[in-house]
Write a structure and sequence with these properties.
PmbA/TldD fold; 2 domains; 7-stranded mixed beta sheet; 6-stranded mixed beta sheet; 11 helices; globular
Length: 464
């Protein structure tokens, strides 16, 4: 498949041209071919040994068309002569079945947006970087075991071709590292996980040095946080000032992104319905989608419908600024697509999603230490659970199991767990008093959310 797609970009693939022409001869119209390819490499070390090494390469063709005026689609791993009859049969069988899908649009101009992000790596050198991080973590006090020390690189390519052989090509990809550390003290154990983006530059241009520095720093931070989680206690119920760790805030933010999706707003299944251009957060809160930011892992130039993506503010100074649309929802709203038409997976229809969403401050930022110093008695949240069941995008409400540390006189104190935090995401946005300078990323559902730590005036806590 890779060679076939490479030829297409230079207009040299007679097999693809013949296939598209053949579909037209069979009576299909509005033909579009969606080609998705992905390759990845994964390494994991444990106990100073390379435990897993995987290299993957996969691809899928999605054929969309109209048969007697009705939308139809078929999936195949190849377009060989032997598979053509199956594709045609499947196309005819699905005509009129997918009533919620739109007929594919034609492409006006062929463009190649690929960044060619794949970088060849030295397996032994990457393994040594991971082993160095494992040693770094194990050298820290009370660390018992490094459960996870991993490197992953991927490149995903998307090509759209219409019946006139016009095409659009784009890709996405990055290098990421993950470290999970277990600390123990007597019969108490605690776990902490850290994620990071490795420099995607060429290996010969210093990736090894940058990778070693990144993964070792993550190992130190994971070890420190695991140690802070030991000997957890319960906490009394009440309303407390809260500092939410960056990764937890990214998880919260990512869960509530569907509130900005056009179809949810139109169907009043979003807590933001009817609140466009209203204040829904504090006056220095900014939330924006930036498909081009290197802070995130999802960088695209077009969406899965071929519409150009763009940088846009969802919240500016706490005001709800922009709704996100795909072609169908944008057409229903009379505004067109915002470049947010993405497939949740290659065989699914077009939905609404995002690339990189970044939470930041319109004013200044501060360190975690400054946030802690502003709290006399509160809680530092390092983990939440039950987001899927406990967070409603329709109402904005949440009730989540949480754990973290006490904040006493501006410093981290004993670990606390088995308590529930409850509130509303819009009220939390309004209650933000400080935004940190420590952004981290979290990926979910093929999108990426970047957030620093934040300090909020208060949340209700149900404990003892």
């Amino acid at each position: 498949m890779t060679e076939s797609v490479r030829k297409l970009w230079w207009g040299e693939d007679p097999e693809l041209i013949a296939f598209m022409e053949w579909l037209g001869e069979q009576g299909f119209t509005d033909i579009r071919l969606f080609i998705s390819t992905r390759k990845s490499v994964f390494l994991a070390v444990q106990c100073q040994e390379l435990k897993r090494y995987e290299y993957g390469h996969s691809g899928m063709y999605v054929v969309e068309a109209a048969w007697k005026g009705e939308y139809c689609c078929a999936y195949a791993s190849s377009l060989t002569a032997g598979s053509r009859a199956k594709i045609v049969r499947r196309l005819k069988e699905t005509a009129g079945v997918y009533t919620n899908r739109e007929l594919p649009q034609g492409i006006t101009e062929s463009r190649d947006f690929r960044g060619q992000r794949w970088r060849e790596i030295d397996k032994e050198a990457v393994s040594e970087c991971l082993m160095c991080a494992e040693r770094e973590a194990l050298s820290c006090e009370k660390v018992d075991f490094v459960e996870m020390c991993e490197y992953q690189q991927y490149e995903e390519t998307v090509v759209l071709i219409d019946g006139k052989m016009h095409y659009l090509a784009d890709d996405d990809g990055d290098c990421t590292v993950t470290v999970r550390v277990v600390a123990k003290d007597g019969d108490s154990a605690a776990v902490a996980t850290k994620f990071g983006i490795a420099d995607a530059g060429g290996w010969e241009a210093g990736l090894q040095k940058n990778l070693r520095e990144t993964v070792c720093e993550l190992a130190r931070r994971a070890a420190q946080d695991a140690g802070l989680g030991l000997h957890a206690q319960k906490i009394a119920s009440g309303r407390y000032p809260i500092v939410i760790e960056n990764y937890v805030m990214a998880e919260l933010t990512g869960h509530y992104l569907p509130m900005f999706y056009g179809e949810n707003l139109m169907h009043h299944t979003s807590a933001l319905a009817g609140k466009e251009h209203e204040q829904v957060g504090c006056d220095f809160l900014r939330l924006e989608e930036d498909p081009f930011s290197r802070k995130g892992t999802c960088r695209r130039r077009i969406d899965d419908e071929g519409t150009p993506v763009s940088k846009k503010a969802l919240l500016r100074k706490g005001v709800f600024e922009n709704v996100l649309y795909n072609s169908k929802s944008g057409g229903q709203a009379g505004v067109g697509s915002t470049g947010n038409g993405f497939k949740p997976d290659v065989t699914a229809g077009i939905g609404t999603s995002v690339t990189n969403v970044i939470l930041s401050s319109e004013a200044g930022t501060c360190s975690r230490e400054e946030m802690l110093r502003s709290v006399r008695e509160g809680i530092y949240i390092t983990k939440i659970e039950g987001m899927f069941a406990g967070g409603s995008t329709e109402s904005g409400d949440f009730s989540l199991l949480a754990s973290g540390n006490r904040i006493i006189d501006g410093k981290l104190g004993s670990a606390v767990n088995q308590f529930t935090i409850s509130g509303n995401i819009c009220e939390l946005w309004k209650d933000i008093e400080m935004i940190g300078d420590d952004p981290v990323y979290r990926t979910a559902d093929r999108a990426c959310v970047v957030s620093p730590s934040v300090k909020a005036a208060g949340l209700m806590v149900s404990g003892e």
